[in-house]
Amino acid sequence: MSDRIYLGAALAALLCHPCGASAASDADLQAIREHIQQLKQSYEQRITQLEQRLQQAEASSRQPESVAPQPARSASANSDNAFNPAVSLILSGTYGQLKQDATIPATGFAMNANPGHEQGFNLGESELGISANIDPQFRGVATLALDPAGGIGVENAFVQSGALGNGLNLKMGRFFSGLGYLNEQHAHAWDFADQPLVYRALWDNQIGEDGLQLKWLAPTEMFVEVGGEIGRGRGFPGTDRQRRNGIGAGVLFAHIGDDIGIEQSWRAGMSLHQTRRADAASDAVPDLPGTPGGVRNLFSGDSHTAGLDLVWKYSPNGNTRERYLKVQGEYFRRKENGLLTYDTAGANATGSYAVTQSGWYLQSVYQFAPAWRTGLRYDRLDPGIASVGAPNAGNVISDYAFNPSRITWMADYSPSEFSRLRLQLARDKSRQGLDDNQFFLQYIMSLGAHGAHQY
To answer: Rounded to whole angstroms, how far apart are CA atoms 117 and 99?
Structure first.
């Protein structure tokens, strides 16, 4: 029995027997007095011990930090972690088997870019990404392209501010343009091993810009985004304005989207792009005289492009990890008007030139199991009918009477979100009389921290 219980029992006994013998009562009282004295001494000792421990703790807290270095190391470690950027590395490689020469451009698009494909084993382009919050107002992102032949290129390097308020976001530096749907996506996020024909022909796979981008996200339940860009026009079809002031290119775009229940969602958009080409050279361009190997031409003039894009996604019960279906398509129409210099090494004749070209694609990707997907894509281009000035009417082909096209099938396996293996087959009819059966194997591996991709 504890001291308190013992004392309580004694007091209760005393109260319950007030009329007992005096000798017994005196003995009980004496025992109680002695026990109380013992408790008092015990409590005083405990209080003294606690006071001593408190004095020691206060003295220890007043000592210099060097005496207790552990808290200082913890603070330093937290500061370092707060400033460490997120670093990622994307490794990719392909094996390509093609029947035709990959350097031959699509018919009617010889004056446009032709990124083509690599035959045989190809390391591909590795991407080194670095990103971090700079302070509460700014965030920095850089993506460096590691060329397999050596050298480093800057894909993206921009500062982004979301602190403007009212749904405004400002991007400054080098970035992929916000036009269309696919253009902002990095290569490792593509659903196929290559870009659609319209992106290859009109945008040299992907248009990047050095400049400013401003986006506004509307405060509505439906997704509404409007944006604009100004830049130097370094990406095709523009001509890089080195050693020149002013603006070389401009872009306007708008996107809307919404959910349909928990299983469906969609996004639609439109884009406008304007730039100017100055002495843009094109080699091996076919001509009416049938010059072997083609000729070298120069074009200077304005370029205006309009585009539409649409994507729709469906996932049973909204569970995208198990199954989903995605359907997307884009259409671009470009009009160029200016002066064309034909055969710079020979005739060197200059005259007016105008042409409207267009292209579109439609694709669908179906994830039928958590790690497995398959997809189908159809591409088509229209080279248009050019208006050629009198000096070159007998030299330049104005109507190719052929529409390049291609159909592509792919299947890929992703054991995790960091790795993907892909098989791709294509029937390419983009070059008149040069049909091509194409076979590709591809791997894409992601190391380190990597943010989520856009919708």
So the answer is: 12
**Alpha carbons 391 and 383: distance in angstroms, whole number:** 22
Strand partners, 440: 96, 424
Structure tokens given for 98: 């093609």
Place of tokens 């049938």: 290
User: How many Å apart are CA 10 and CA 106, to the nearest integer?
Assistant: 109
- 327-354 pLDDT tens trace: 999 999 999 999 999 999 999 999 999 9
Q: Write the pLDDT tens digit of every residue in 151-169.
A: 888 999 999 997 788 899 9
Task: List pLDDT tens digits, range 307-318.
Answer: 999 999 999 998
Nearest to 126 by CA among 186, 42, 66: 186
Secondary-structure percent of the chain, ordered helix, strand, coil, rounded to 5: 20, 45, 35
CA 363 vs CA 211, 303, 309: distances in Å: 32, 27, 12
CATH hierarchy code of domain 85-448: 2.40.160.10
Q: Which helix (H) or strand (E) holds 9?
A: helix 3-16
**Long-range pairs for 114-121: beta carbons < 8 A, 24 or more residues apart:** 114/200, 114/201, 115/195, 115/200, 115/204, 115/205, 117/194, 117/438, 117/440, 118/94, 120/95, 120/96, 121/93, 121/94, 121/95
